[in-house]
Amino acid sequence: MTKELSGLHGLADPKVGEMVEYIVGEQQRIDDVEQPKLLKIVRARTTPWTPGELVEACAPGYYAAPLPICRMLYTTVRAMRPERVVEFGTSYGLSTLHIAAALRDNGGGRVTSVEMHEGKAAAARENIAEAGLSDHVEIVVGEASQVLAEVPGPVDFLYLDGWAEFYLSVLKAVEPKLRSGALVHADDTGKFAAGAKSYLDYVRDPANGYVSVEITDGQGLELSTYTGAGREAV
Fold first, then answer.
1. What b/e readout covers 4-40, taking b as 16+ CB neighbours within 10 angstroms?
2. Cβ-Cβ contacts under 8 Å for 231 (sequence gap 6 or more)
3. N or C: which end of the chain has fewer CB within 10 A?
């Protein structure tokens, strides 16, 4: 009997639950100190960031998605039943764990998550392995807009939770692989509205093939469905 048929679910798995609790605890402990430092640096910045500069600035913190968003990802993946999920921004793997748990509960599927910081990527792999979810996860180190251009399609679900200024370039790298009806979930679009503007302008323009809706949750998130724009998925 498969786990799906047994009535259990991945978030009730003790190994998954213990790892989620660990990451959340570390995030709260560390980010309470590091986030004010990062905000000070960001507010003083007057020129565009390079990906490498951002990796260095964010290296001391966790900056994972809030737990309610992670649970939303789990429920979304369970409902969608995607075969291929792509994630921009791994950090220590909190959101990745929720996606992978849902994929396992669905009976299959894989999430490819991209992280530029090698130390965080290595830690995320360890966390995911300890949670018993490695079979459903691939963590790739590199600049997302370059790495994700090589991901095979079709992509069913794209989750954006890196730096908002790079959302549009990441979307365009993955867009040729998106299947018609694919979901794109972009976090922090309110919190980092200035950086997300080009991305939001793009997905809110029907000419680009998306139906998009803003959801206000304190940080802001944008849910967009790719309509296919008259082409077949890769």
1. eeeeebbbebeebeebbeebbeebeeebeebbeebee
2. none
3. N
Q: Would you give the distance in Å from CA 183 to the centre of its chain? A: 12
C-beta of residue 209 within 8 angstroms of C-beta of residue 179: no
Q: H-helix or E-strand containing 31? A: helix 14-44
Residues 6+ apart with CB under 8 A from 54: 163
**Dist. CA 178–CA 60, nearest whole Å:** 33
Q: How many CB atoms lie within 10 A of CB 67?
A: 16
Task: Pull the structure tokens for residue 23.
Answer: 């990451």
pTM comes to 0.86
Higher-pLDDT residue of 144, 216 = 144
Which tokens is 25 given?
């605890």
* H-only helix segments in 45-164: 51-58, 67-80, 94-106, 118-130, 144-147
Q: Where does the pLDDT of residue 230 fall: very low under 50, low under 70, confident under 90, or very high at 90 and above?
A: very low
Q: pLDDT (tens digit, 9 = 90+) per residue, 209-222?
A: 999 999 987 688 99
Exposure class string for 163-192: b at 16+ Cβ within 10 A, else e: bbbbbbbbbebbbebbbeebbbbbbbbbeb
Q: Compute the C-alpha angle 34/167/122, nearest 5°.
A: 50
Q: What is the pLDDT of residue 60?
A: 60
Are 112 and 138 in contact by the 8 Å Cβ rule? The answer is yes
What does each C-alpha distance from 209 to 44, 73, 95, 146, 230 come to in angstroms? 36, 23, 27, 22, 8
Give the span between the Cα atoms of 132 and 105, in whole angstroms.
13
